[in-house]
Amino acid sequence: GDGRTSSLVRQIGAARTLQHSLVPKPGSDLAERLAEVDPVRQLEQAARCGIRFLVPGDPEWPATLDELDDVITDKGVGGTPPGLWVRGPMPLGELTTSVAVVGSRAASVYGVEVTRGLCDHLATVGVPVVSG
């Protein structure tokens, strides 16, 4: 993620950061993408699928993620994630174990199939699967 944005969220909160950061120049790519996004509708669709979105400061937010703010590269990448999509009824604070799935951005078709099967199995037997 963007380390600068991560630090700002930590200092002034997600809502104020969003208000300050999302004022794109008219005609920019960001302005066009934002015009197509309906966050309320997206959150409603997610909720119908048993998915919720957490931001730093939410009661369920894992405090250990805030420590990532100290891990920002010289290129400004890293920091606490701006949010987490969570699927399933269990509160994050009750989780004692999990498996992280990383490095999946450029996966092959076979890699995606194998990973999906593995993650489905883990979730079925009650192991939380985390993906960034």
Concise account of the structure shown:
This protein has helices at 3-12, 14-21, 29-35, 39-48, 109-124, and strands at 51-54, 84-87, 99-101, 129-131. With 132 residues, the protein is of the alpha+beta class. The mean pLDDT is 79.
Describe what this molecule looks like in 3D.
- This is DNA-protecting protein DprA.
- Residues 53-132 form the Smf/DprA SLOG domain.
- Belongs to the DprA/Smf family.
- The protein has 132 residues and is an alpha+beta fold.
- The protein folds into 2 domains: 3-89, no CATH class; 96-132.
- It has 5 helices and 4 strands.
- It has helices at 3-12, 14-21, 29-35, 39-48, 109-124, and strands spanning 51-54, 84-87, 99-101, 129-131.
- The strands form 2 sheets. Strands 1-2 form a two-stranded antiparallel ribbon. Strands 3-4 form a two-stranded parallel sheet.
- The chain is globular and about 45 Å long.
- The N and C termini lie close together (10 Å).
